[in-house]
Amino acid sequence: MLENLEMPTRNEVEYTLLISLFNHNGVIKEFGAGEEIVDEIANDFGLNEEQRTAYLETVYTKENRVKRSYLWHRLLFRAADSLAKEKLVSRPSKTILITNEREWMLTEEGYNRVLETLHIPLSQKDILPIKSYEVQKVVKKIYEQDRPENYNPIEKNKKIVKVTHEAKLRNRAFRQAILEAYSYKCAVCGMKIYSPNTLQWEVEAAHIVPRSSNGKDDIFNGIALCRLHHWAFDVGWFTLEDNFTILGSKRIYYLPTGFGNLWGYNFMEQLSNKNLTIFLPEKEEIHPHPNAIIWHRKNIFYP
Ligand SMILES: [Zn+2]
Fold this sequence. Notes:
By secondary structure, the protein is of the alpha+beta class. It has helices at residues 10-23, 36-45, 49-53, 71-85, 92-99, 108-117, 133-144, 165-181, 227-234, 267-271, 290-299, and strands at residues 27-29, 55-60, 65-70, 89-90, 103-106, 204-207, 222-225, 238-240, 246-248, 261-262, 265-266.
């Protein structure tokens, strides 16, 4: 009887699950009854009511018990289980240790597989907001690092030459930790916008002490800025006071007329506004460290 239902094959479900993970930023909730994702993937396959509600009965003779489970749930679980065996996703029991949620999450390998399938270059991983188990592990470390009182924002052991696999994961983790902490919003102007396909955020994770000066990839040396403010910060048009108010360069007053205008609004003048405080994450422990800000003021900013 079940054969007449013409359910999708496991391979088809595996494929669709991977794509679905990609479309949900690399993470989907464990399939319990009623989870949206179960219906969503069923919709992708155009399953009818009968296919969605068909159930299997497992008879446990010893316990004299019959267990019923939805065939569709079972198919989904089997497909996810098989992806986990291939190391393309992490199991909810493993993901929960880093996200506190029972979720299936793409691994780096799974992420690569999806990008290949969709003909997206691997280099896009630096920009796309897709989570992977390996990167989230580093993100967790970044968030959990104790806030040192005597913080040095500069990496002492200058590690150069090779861009290792770990360094790449670290870059992505830094970016993700900062953007999440600032809710994908520019700390200066509050701009929050993504691409029409919702896959790319405009905001960037800026280093306060730049990478070129061996600035650290941690939460104390980072701040989320829109492209315009990122650029203005990096070239020294503005900096921050220890209390996180914006300090604009005096050179702004000597700019030729019409410079720094955005549709009649002067973006440069805004930077010279006294007492304008930036948006910060709620948790104080992850605010930028004053030592990083002091370094920026001394070395990058033009008073
Ligand atoms: Zn901005």
